[in-house]
Amino acid sequence: VHFPDVERVEWLNKVLVQAWPYFGTIMEKTFKEVLEPKIRAKSVHLKTCTFTKIHFGEKCPRINGIKAYTKEIDRRQVTLDLQICYIGDCEIHMDISKFNLGVKGVQLYGTLRVILEPLLTDAPFVGAVTLFFMQKPHLEINWAGMSNLLDVPGINVMSDSLIQDFIAARLVLPNRITVPLKKNMNIAHLRFPVPKGVIRVHLLEAENLVQKDNFLGAIRGKSDPYALLRVGTVQYRSKTVSRDLNPIWNETFEFVVHEVPGQDLEVDLYDEDPDKDDFMGSLLIGLVDVMNDRTVDEWFPLSKTTSGHLHLKLEWLSLVNDQEKLHEDKKGLSTAILIVYLDGAFNLPKNHFEYSNGEYGAKKIKNNKYLKKMEREPSSFVLLTVGNKTQKSKTCNFSKDPKWGQAFTFFVHSAHSQSLHIEIKDKERDSALGTSVVCLSHLLKDPNMTLDQRFQLDHSSSDSFIKMKLVLRALNVEEPDPQRVKAGVNASKSGPVCVTEKVGNQQKFASPPQVSKVPPMSKDSAAVESLPKKDSGEDLDTKDSSGAPVSSETVSGLGEVEGKQNPEQCPPSALPSRAGAVPTLPVLQEMRVAPSVTSLGSLPSSCFELSSSNLDIHNGTEMPLGEIQLTVRYASIRQSLVVLVNGCRNLVPSSNRGVDPYVRIYLLPDRRWTSRKKTSVKKKTLNPQYDEKFEFFESLENVKKRTLDIAVKNSRPFISQERKELGKVHIDLSQEDLIKGFAQW
Hints:
Its main location: membrane. This protein is mainly beta. The chain is built from eleven helices and 38 strands.
């Protein structure tokens, strides 16, 4: 599948194929000279480890596509996303104390992000390369000698999932590998950049979930749904709501977001069962849209299932260096984030007997063998705790000056009263080698809310220190920019011109043409926006005209007089063809240019003329049958194609008694009656105004292969001889930029 912004790089794949044998030779040397000694030093059981065969095979990794980011990011960097696929025939065998263990074939695929920064004015022009996977890559290992594997001491606990976790712990966000290309390059800020922000997810409720519980394969009961929410490697599970297909959770989760664009929020719903939990649908939301929109409150359709919608409220919290924002949240939500860059420690005691509260107290130990073990340098790791959350660092073996080089993030509820607790422990003896407590209120004394220093360790020797950098940032919900037209889900929710469609008692929102210089929102349009919103993605099919949406427009900024009018009494249209209907013409001159192509309703740039090729035209001429105004865009956050039927003009009547036009839409090649979309019927008019929104829930790559078939039809009595079709138009979606969207006559 070829995406418009992902480039195919066949030349790079050809280079890889040619260079692969040479890379294999380098790796064989690395395995023998670097990896083998490291494995032997890890454990007593692995001292006899020897690589007997190392062959990287003929098949090399393939790069399916590259997406380059240059505009959305800092000017001093280039970001590349590489879609990597490796189905390798490599063979690696090793002997460990009479046991033979090996790998015969590996499959790996995922998206690897490569960041080149900072760009320099002298050679080598790039300061460093940073690599990481956005999500955990898919990994399959074909083991050789697996029958003996379970008997090997020290390795008997290994499995594919453990190895995947091992890779994730080093290569998946927030972990990064940074390789400096220029000497004396300080790469600390590249390895541990400050996160982009925090996403607060309010998991509210779901509706119409599929029934999964069955009894004796026949009677279907109600399911017991719960949700798994995931961003990168962090996953949370909601509570289980028993026996309910319309569960209400009302739970809140917070995730640190390290890379935007790139990271997504994944939500999977499951039915809890005693044996195996059944899958009930999933949802993928691009966080870049949430970051731009600030707040998204929406019903999302579930994919990979037959029915169900999920109601989420998403808030983007930016990280600000402002102490005034640190007021305590009454609901118990986080108000700040603490980032701990753990560098290393100095002069750790060999054991906790050697020093007691800083005073030297040698212990006489009679057992010589134990004494030797005691005199060995410690293998230390760090436990970091804020509130009730504890995180653990990696272990540095046999060093009194360990270097961890890791970053940790903690959510903070009250910066004035909470503390960071540090405990350094010895892996061999599980004893404390030193502790430290840092009150977060110390950070508030610094204008940048940052501490970068050595901290004296308690319950350790007098010259034992730990070096850390602590950064505190307040979480701030920014108000949405009124000048910005919301993208994705919210494209139809706000903007200067708001159309409210009333369907029964339910309020729905569509978005007609936007104004180029967006004036401040009037009270009317703000009131319209504050109405309860529920968009369950259903068609706005209305059979009779009495229930048809009443089109009402409020054009904000047309003056106070206009703002005070009842929306129902506003002019029925603000289209250029009938500009005379609106009192203030200068504003309409401004409306001719759309502010943003990401908005749902940009103004006409060309015309869709209704074709007359297959119609029986009474006058016998090949003349246009009128025009239809459509707004089409792909809402990536909802995974749907949104088609807004604005209106028609200059339709050709099919009879003397007038026409009652409506619009019918198919997404070809699907012509099933169930997937047909249809507007309401407008009585006795050749210039109907609909402003009705329809959605087709398909992936972008599927939509790109489809064609929109749009017909304007005349609603006539069943036995009537009048012509039913007034005109039709086909739009090939493969030729359009659907993410930006388009609005045309």
